[in-house]
User: Which sequence fits this backbone?
């Protein structure tokens, strides 16, 4: 059923205050979210800067539920019941600020503005504080699952106040993906917590995609296999511990034939990966927090390298390879080694991502429950995967778990693959296949478990040239050695 808020000829008279949720910004994501709300029986107020987009939504999908279409923002706001819940689905950055500026004068105390775009969490912290001054709730919410997820059930990561979640949460949980009947949506924490968790989700997504790409590259070079043949390998992997949305679509993409050339589709795609920015934000945050998210960082830099055309052009045919020719004797064993290395590297990436969430939660006082985050990532989102059940269980066993890798289940699962992981990274180096994510993840594994690290030498070097001081293993305190004098050691 479709009503417009000017049905009775007077703005807002016919449908004033009847919509339980509203969506402004009806590009594909906003359109699909509005449809999802309507399909679940909510009366949905809809608005777009251009009325034609609103008209086409109700024309195409008006039979899916109850929409209240408004041409003006004022009518849109007036059509919402109190406390008003407005979902803003426009481009991150200035466009979001512009819509908020238009909305605020029209809203009343207790109303809720939800930013469901991929906003940068510092912007969300700023916006939440600004709207609080007006007695309004600002909810920065991650929404993951792309266009299909928005329509059929995304993973939703709302931040903001617990008070806002009390009225908004049940609606979001209704439309979210469900796993074992449990909504893939929960209250994440105050102000920017929701967008921070979504950002880390995307960083992990980058690592996941890079690791899959490296596994594909290794099989391509090591076996001389075609894309469709490797697609079959991924399809097989998807029935085991690696079962996930990204593995599933990889098998699908690799099996796809380009209609124009008849060649494997992936062979005609330009090998320059782009990025809209969420991975970059994750790495910047990891650097600020001092959390070594090496898998995510290498994945982000790998995208930048792939786009470094001048450097790649200068290197091609110039930099000698000095590699050994591949000679894989046991193909099945090699495939299994790559699978084990992929799984181990994936665990490292998630372990690092959850450490980053813990560090931010501590710094910002968000009180994020990492088990709950793993739980809502089990479905709907891009990184949805079987092993997120295991991560959920790990954080349920120990909510303060200092290192996911050290959880008994994951220690055991990864240790089964360490020898293979080493063989694969060695083979990649020997044969000149770039595996920055596989290799850095193994380096992280060895670094985090090392009895002693060469950081001791770095401390000594820093004290030598900069008198930056150091601590000792055998007694408390901080010290400096008089390197340019008699080399005596003084308490700093
Ligand atoms: C999601 C996706 C979504 C977006 C990615 C891809 O969770 O639904 O992550 O947010 O499609 O961020 O963007 P880039 O790869 O260009 O960063």
Assistant:
């Amino acid at each position: 059923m479709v009503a417009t808020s000017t049905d009775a000829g007077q703005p807002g008279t016919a449908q004033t205050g009847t919509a339980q949720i509203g969506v402004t910004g009806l590009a594909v994501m906003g359109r699909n979210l509005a449809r999802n709300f309507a399909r679940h029986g909510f009366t949905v107020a809809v608005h777009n800067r251009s009325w034609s987009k609103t008209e086409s939504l109700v024309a195409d999908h008006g039979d899916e539920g109850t929409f209240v279409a408004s041409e003006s923002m004022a009518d849109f706001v007036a059509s919402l019941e109190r406390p008003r819940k407005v979902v803003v689905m426009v481009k991150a950055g200035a466009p979001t600020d512009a819509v908020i500026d238009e909305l605020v004068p029209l809203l009343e105390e207790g109303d809720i503005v939800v930013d469901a775009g991929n906003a940068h969490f510092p912007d969300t912290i700023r916006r939440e504080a600004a709207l609080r001054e007006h007695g309004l709730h600002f909810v920065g919410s991650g929404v993951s699952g792309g266009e299909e997820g928005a329509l059929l059930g995304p993973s939703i990561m709302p931040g903001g106040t617990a008070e806002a979640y009390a009225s908004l949460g049940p609606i979001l949980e209704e439309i979210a993906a469900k796993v074992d009947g449990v909504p893939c949506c929960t209250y994440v924490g105050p102000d920017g917590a929701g967008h921070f968790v979504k950002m880390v989700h995307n960083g992990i997504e980058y690592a996941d995609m890079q690791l899959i790409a490296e596994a594909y590259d290794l099989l391509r070079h090591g076996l001389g296999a075609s894309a469709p043949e490797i697609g079959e390998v991924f399809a097989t992997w998807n029935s085991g511990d690696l079962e996930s949305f990204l593995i599933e679509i990889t098998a699908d993409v690799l099996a796809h034939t380009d209609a124009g050339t008849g060649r494997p589709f992936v062979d005609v795609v330009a090998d320059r990966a782009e990025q809209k920015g969420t991975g970059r934000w994750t790495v910047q945050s990891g650097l600020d927090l001092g959390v070594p998210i090496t898998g995510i960082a290498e994945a982000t830099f790998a995208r930048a390298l792939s786009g470094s055309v001048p450097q790649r052009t200068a290197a091609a045919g110039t930099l000698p390879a000095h590699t050994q020719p591949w000679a894989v004797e046991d193909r099945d064993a090699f495939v299994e080694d790559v699978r084990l290395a992929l799984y181990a590297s994936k665990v490292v990436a998630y372990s690092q991502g959850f450490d980053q969430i813990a560090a931010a939660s501590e710094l910002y006082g968000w009180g994020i429950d990492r088990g709950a985050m793993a739980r809502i990532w089990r479905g709907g989102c891009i990184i949805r995967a079987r092993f997120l059940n295991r991560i959920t269980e790990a954080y349920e066993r120990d909510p303060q778990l200092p290192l996911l890798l050290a959880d008994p289940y994951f220690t055991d699962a990864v240790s089964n693959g360490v020898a293979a992981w080493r063989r694969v990274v060695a083979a990649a180096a020997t044969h000149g296949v770039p595996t920055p994510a596989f290799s850095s993840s193994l380096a992280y594994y060895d670094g985090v478990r090392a009895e002693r690290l060469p950081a001791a030498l770095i401390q000594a070097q820093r004290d030598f040239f900069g008198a930056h001081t150091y601590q000792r293993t055998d007694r408390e305190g901080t010290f400096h050695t008089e390197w340019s004098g008699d080399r005596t050691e003084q308490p700093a």
About this structure: DSSP finds 20 helices and twelve strands in the chain. Residues 331-364 form the longest helix (34 residues). The two ends are 75 Å apart (CA to CA).
